[in-house]
């Protein structure tokens, strides 16, 4: 790891900090009213500092000496945890049995990275640029009912859930149902692949997008920390992009409501927002399916419509990555090139050559079940075993999965705060860009990025959303490290 | 209690709600994702409704029927608890052992009243009017060092803590220390006495004023609840006065800082804010006393100065209530009349006649120790026993207490929410008006009320701050019930 300390674009500051000060041993932590264990990262930081080639040899630190740095970071942890408590950056504490059952009790600060993740400005701009193009793509694909039905025809043989969704979609096609006003609240997730030096899309979410609220808050947390401590840390709070995800999504919903009511009078439901409905568990009985159908049949704006929902499936992601498919939906060649550049390798299990490669080198692939919801991806030995088993069965069950190129983001040592305690671990980061899209017939009312979500995950875990305990909330610190990514222009 | 339902000025809405709807039995609670026990208050409400003389007999409810009302209130509890979680209206959960030790963990919504407390607009205006007068009084009294030393001379014989404060004050007098810039952040607490129909001051706090932050938030909570549910409840969110206590106090501190730096250059401490220092426990060793002295000797603006601190003692409150004492400090006769009208009976234990009365009728008095910090007041039998014991001793220990007229606020049934659960209890309310004062020599820069804090306490408890578990945070709902209080004009 040490060779990556200065160059990996996603790394955090804990490993940079020491280089700003001279060598020296770490003093004892300041005695605080609230007793914090001294983060082990600070001790490691001191060691890294002692080894740093950047620290001018023999020169005493001009600003924060070792113990000052330790004290500052310890103070930051405390300030940050308090900030979370008084600004609603909280989640339910799994250790509290009432949490999640009774609102307002058993709260704990959301797990967060103490400092924002470094990201080259060029990559940031690239990700923002992609948001309206993906928004438009979703809309165009949603209009091609035949494509959706055809692309998912094999998936539905093996996946009852997708089959039910397709059934509703089919009914809408049968009555030629048109959605004049279409609202999309999406999030496209990316990682920076160290092998190809490129920003690669992990997935595109089109239903029940999580974290616009907490994501906005953690950016504010980091800004506030850097406003207070930026000088001593040598960091500029202005390099954290503003994040209005929550209010921009709310604005999109309000504009949809307003657009709908411009044309109609009376007290009817104008916008249906799906906070659930993306997983089989959300439909415990036929009643929920009837409700879903009823909503789809109504004239209300659905966020998402059944079509938008289906466009977000992994199978469609994989279909769109095939040669010449984007061209069916988009006209602008530059846009198409930008999208394609962000696509990782995606294959169906019909592709025998790729399946063979994956069995040989499972470490280069991820096997993804067609359905939504984190925590189900298959890696390594399990991937190999599953593929071998599926090959033997030779049935339709192959259609329940897609294979994806495994992305290798560089890992960095990051101070993470969970349960009020700071600890350091090797992490990788995943950048989500929220996108809002609203159109009424031919008039596009909104099509833009709507803030972002950085999730930083302990790199030893193959996968994991923040909610499953493997990751922390994070934000972005823009850097000028452009050179490395200009290499990827011709990719 | 039932006779008080329509008239007591401090009562809450739970007992009014039913009168808006027709008679009928209460339906089952709506099944909610989060399981809330149906507040017992709702069942009682239904009974009260059935008995109500105001409900037009035989007329079906025009708006929310009984079960609708139950569902609405149950929904309100849930919404309110969630609002608290995401807006920082949280406190440490005493059931969590890490809470209070590690910031950001073991959080729970602050206990609150589900609906704001009714208060006649006339009383509200009276309380606001008093704020700048009390601010000015504190300032004037603080300048009369001899008065403070003299008034507290006997107290210091029996109270080491006051003696130490007076010692510092004496040292400042000896060197003729002047505080050109004086900053006061105060809170004057009142109750509405049902015996005299008047607003009576409980105490005036001049150091480490609590709850400007949570107080502001609970007003916002109630406003938001009424914006959402006001129509169905027949309540108007605009009747909750805006509460900017936290930002107004912050503004006062910033203006003090700015005022100080107008005259000086360089990096020195300009404002010292005391978040502690008001209780003996805050001075575990001589080091803290040396620090207090050092700060007092410095040219920094102290909030509060030692003089302001001493003016807030109960003994000074009692001295100021003596005839002709206010006239020593204030010129404006109307101001003096307004202050005096808000004074409850206050006596030193030198007053043998009053001590005799208190032993005979202890229920009409409160015995207050001289020192700060809730939970130490003595009532009833204990008051009698203590007075008898003190009389026998006949020493200086009499000076450690003052006697105060016991105030009898009307009690009302109020829905309280604690730990996510709503329950109903008989409560009384105490109104605190924050006041901010800043002057530089002859120039008064700020002198105004700075928001408010309503604390609603279970009336069976004689005393108790919110933090001690006997009370909930509350806000104000202004009513037009003026008549009752016009009676008190000549009091």
From TrEMBL, chains A, B:
Mg(2+) binds at residues 203, 205, 372. Signal peptide: none annotated. It catalyses: gamma-L-glutamyl-L-cysteine + glycine + ATP = glutathione + ADP + phosphate + H(+). One of its GO terms (molecular function) is ATP binding. InterPro entries: Glutathione_synthase, Glutathione_synthase_C_euk, Glutathione_synthase_N_euk, GSH-S_sub-bd_sf, GSH_synth_subst-bd, PreATP-grasp_dom_sf. Binds 1 Mg(2+) ion per subunit. ATP binds at residues 203, 314, 368-377, 379, 404-407, 430, 457, 463. It comes from the Eukaryota. This is Glutathione synthetase. It comes from Eleusine coracana subsp. coracana.
């Amino acid at each position: 790891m040490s060779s990556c300390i200065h160059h990996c674009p996603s790394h955090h500051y804990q490993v940079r900090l020491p280089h700003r000060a001279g060598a020296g041993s770490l003093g004892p932590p300041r005695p605080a009213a609230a007793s914090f264990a001294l983060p082990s990262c600070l001790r490691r930081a001191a060691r890294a500092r002692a080894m740093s080639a950047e620290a001018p040899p023999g020169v005493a630190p001009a600003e924060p000496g070792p113990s000052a740095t330790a004290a500052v970071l310890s103070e930051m942890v405390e300030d940050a945890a308090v900030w979370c408590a008084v600004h609603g950056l909280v989640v339910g504490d799994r250790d509290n049995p009432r949490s999640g059952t009774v609102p307002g009790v058993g709260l704990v600060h959301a797990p967060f990275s103490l400092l924002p993740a470094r990201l080259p400005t060029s990559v940031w701009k690239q990700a923002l640029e992609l948001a309206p193009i993906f928004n438009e793509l979703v809309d165009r694909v949603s209009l091609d009912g035949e494509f959706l039905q055809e692309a998912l025809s094999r998936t539905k043989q093996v996946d009852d859930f997708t089959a039910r969704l397709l059934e509703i979609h089919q009914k809408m096609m049968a009555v030629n149902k048109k959605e004049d006003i279409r609202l999309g609240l999406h999030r496209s997730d990316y990682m920076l692949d160290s092998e190809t030096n490129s920003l690669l899309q992990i997935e595109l979410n089109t239903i029940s997008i999580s974290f616009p609220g907490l994501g906005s808050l953690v950016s504010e947390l980091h800004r506030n920390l850097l406003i207070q401590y930026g000088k001593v840390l040598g960091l500029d709070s202005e390099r954290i992009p503003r994040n209005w995800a929550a209010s921009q999504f709310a604005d999109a919903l309000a504009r949809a409501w307003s657009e709908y009511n411009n044309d109609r009078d009376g007290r009817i439901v104008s916008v249906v927002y799906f906070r659930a409905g993306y997983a089989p568990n959300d439909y415990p009985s036929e009643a929920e399916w009837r409700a879903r159908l009823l909503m789809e049949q109504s004239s209300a704006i659905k966020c998402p419509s059944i079509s938008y929902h289906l466009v977000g499936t992994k199978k469609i992601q994989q279909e769109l990555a095939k040669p010449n498919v984007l061209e069916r939906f988009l006209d602008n060649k530059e846009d198409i090139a930008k999208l394609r550049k962000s696509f990782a390798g995606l294959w169906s299990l019909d592709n025998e050559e790729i399946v063979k490669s994956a069995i040989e080198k499972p470490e280069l692939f991820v096997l993804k079940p067609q359905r939504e919801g984190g925590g189900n991806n298959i890696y390594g030995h399990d991937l190999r075993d599953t593929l071998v088993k599926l090959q033997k069965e030779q049935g339709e069950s192959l259609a329940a999965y897609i294979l994806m190129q495994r992305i290798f983001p560089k890992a960095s040592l990051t101070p993470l705060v969970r349960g009020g305690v700071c600890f350091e671990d090797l992490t990788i980061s995943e950048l989500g860009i929220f996108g809002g899209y609203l159109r009424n017939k031919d008039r596009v009312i909104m099509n833009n990025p709507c803030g972002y979500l950085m999730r930083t995950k302990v790199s030893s875990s193959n996968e994991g959303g923040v909610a499953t305990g493997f990751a922390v909330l994070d934000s972005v610190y823009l850097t000028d490290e452009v050179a490395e990514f200009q290499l990827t222009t011709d990719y």
